[in-house]
Amino acid sequence: MPVVTLPDGTQKPFNSPVSVHQVAESISPGLAKAALAGRVAGELVDTSHVIEQDSQLAIITGRDDDGLQVIRHSCAHLMAQAVQQLFPSAQVTIGPVVGDGFYYDFAYERPFTPEDLEAIENKMAEIAKQDLTVERSVMSRDAAVALFEGMGEKYKVEILESIPGDEELSFYKQGDFIDLCRGPHIPSTSKSGAFKLIKVAGAYWRGDSSNEMLQRIYG
């Protein structure tokens, strides 16, 4: 029976393992709706994360710096999903949070134009409105390699093959898009907030000038 201790010292006992979302729901419907992630024993986790033992928990919302980082990271995934829906032959590579925004690197047959950025941004808004659940899963490296090979994602396969074979990896899926990622992420695409795509720049794959030049879209 876990006892969850909140930042103000309040302790909430539960009769069985409980998710971060369920704890937020037990406090108020408004907090449950606003919750983007949680910090359990100092670790940033998804709202679906299950607490099985006595723990300290902070509910993360868009008002928190951590919440903003989670939103930006999730917007990178949202952008990658939009790009692949609009440009099916585009391959995804990596998409982290940086400074006051995010980016994602793509391999595509031609440069993205300002008109493309507008279309991508509109598609992102469309996907956000679909309120797709963002689901975390884990799989072995070999299973992940097989999955991404089947999808024709050679850059993801290269990343995966550089990871030790006995390491269990986490993935995030929303609708038809799945990505290798440590997370955490927002619980659904509707919580993406406001976003704006800013520019496109060139970037070498893995920062090596002997590799292919990719296109980096900043948001």
Automatic annotation (TrEMBL):
GO molecular function: ATP binding; metal ion binding; threonine-tRNA ligase activity; tRNA binding
EC number(s) per entry: 6.1.1.3
Domain (TGS) ranges: 1-61
InterPro entries associated with the record: Beta-grasp_dom_sf, TGS, TGS-like, Thr/Ala-tRNA-synth_IIc_edit, tRNA_SAD
Keyword hit for Oxidoreductase: no
Key words of the record: Aminoacyl-tRNA synthetase, ATP-binding, Cytoplasm, Ligase, Metal-binding, Nucleotide-binding, Protein biosynthesis, RNA-binding, tRNA-binding, Zinc
Record-linked Pfam families: TGS, tRNA_SAD
SMART domains, sorted: tRNA_SAD (SM00863)
GO biological process, one term: threonyl-tRNA aminoacylation
Chemical reaction(s) catalysed: tRNA(Thr) + L-threonine + ATP = L-threonyl-tRNA(Thr) + AMP + diphosphate + H(+)
EC class name: ligase
Protein family membership: Belongs to the class-II aminoacyl-tRNA synthetase family.
The protein, known as: threonine--tRNA ligase
Taxonomic lineage: unclassified sequences, metagenomes, ecological metagenomes
